[in-house]
Amino acid sequence: METRELRYFVAVAEELHFGRAAQRLGIAQPPLSRAIQQLERRLGAALLDRTSRTVMLTEVGSVLLVEGRAALDAVDAAERRTRRAALSTTGRPGLTLVTKASATSELLAKLLAVYAAEPGAVPVEVILCGPAEQARLLREGQADVALLHRPFDSTAGFHTEELGTEGQVVVLPAGHPLAVRAHVHMADIAALPGLPLPRWPDPDGSYPPGPGPQVRDHAQLLQLVALGRACAVSPESCRAQLHGDLAAVPVLDAPTVTTVIAWPPHSRSRAVADLVRTATRLQMIDL
């Protein structure tokens, strides 16, 4: 199959309308229809059920839609990584690191400072994103390296090095009765009246959805906690970012969180290797 054919098919499969798909692709409808028919002949199976009024995916077409999206994402990622590599050979080197906003800020600041002092260090652009977005950006080639947090972020398909493991705390309004406790359990949090856990926009399902308000980022969540509208279970390191109107109490039975530095297995970047070595060296010093 050709990349062009896959793009044509994915457009039709997503639009379920040849006219809209042709408009989206910027081509006329007849050549689009011919391309899909040619693809079906080559595969020996119908990909779409067509009537005069509707277009529906067949079971075979549903399989190709999933696989085709993955293949096209891989092609796009390869192009982005190649362009970044080309920039590094023309005097404009650099790395892009992606991490969840407000997570592991102390570790990140230390890593960037120590790496910047290394011989041959290159500029590092930092992308701060929402929960569960780091792996996607790394997989799509929009970043060279990422800080991920198990068990919430998937590390499948990446090379990783562990940088540290920590417990979790529940973040509460400073005046809440539980704020003076030495520790709590998850059952205590589930029973809190008026302080539900939030709902994150998480298409991968990595973050367990709570019954509380939907939040977009950590700053919004902390504001809701301070207002007494929600609570949050976060890694212990979040204490450094809390203001006086918030309190953090250890949660004894919450899963531990392991921070890892991750990069694509096919990376041949000297800068990525140097950054990873710096990160693992920092981890050994902290131990």
Order of helices and strands: HHHEEHEHEHEEEHHEEEH
Q: State the CATH topology of the largest domain.
A: D-Maltodextrin-Binding Protein, domain 2
Fraction of residues in H or I helices: 40-55%
Total number of beta strands: 10
Strand content: 15-25%
Assembly form of the protein: single chain
Main sheet properties = 5 strands, mixed
Low-confidence runs: none
Rounded Rg: 24 Å
CATH superfamily annotation of the largest domain: Periplasmic binding protein-like II
Supply the number of helical segments: 9
User: How far do the termini sit from each other?
Assistant: 51 Å
Counting helices, strands and paired strands, the structural category is alpha+beta
What are the SSEs and their pairings?
Blueprint: H1 3-15, H2 18-25, H3 29-43, E1 48-50, E2 55-57, H4 59-88, E3 95-100, H5 105-116, E4 124-129, H6 134-139, E5 145-150, E6 159-166, E7 168-173, H7 186-190, H8 218-226, E8 232-235, E9 246-251, E10 257-263, H9 270-286
Parallel strand pairs: 3-4, 3-5
Antiparallel strand pairs: 1-2, 5-10, 6-10, 7-8, 7-9
Helix pairs in contact: 1-2, 1-4, 5-9
Task: List the keywords.
287 residues; alpha+beta; Arc Repressor Mutant, subunit A; D-Maltodextrin-Binding Protein, domain 2; 3 domains; five-stranded mixed β-sheet; three-stranded antiparallel β-sheet; 9 helices; 10 strands
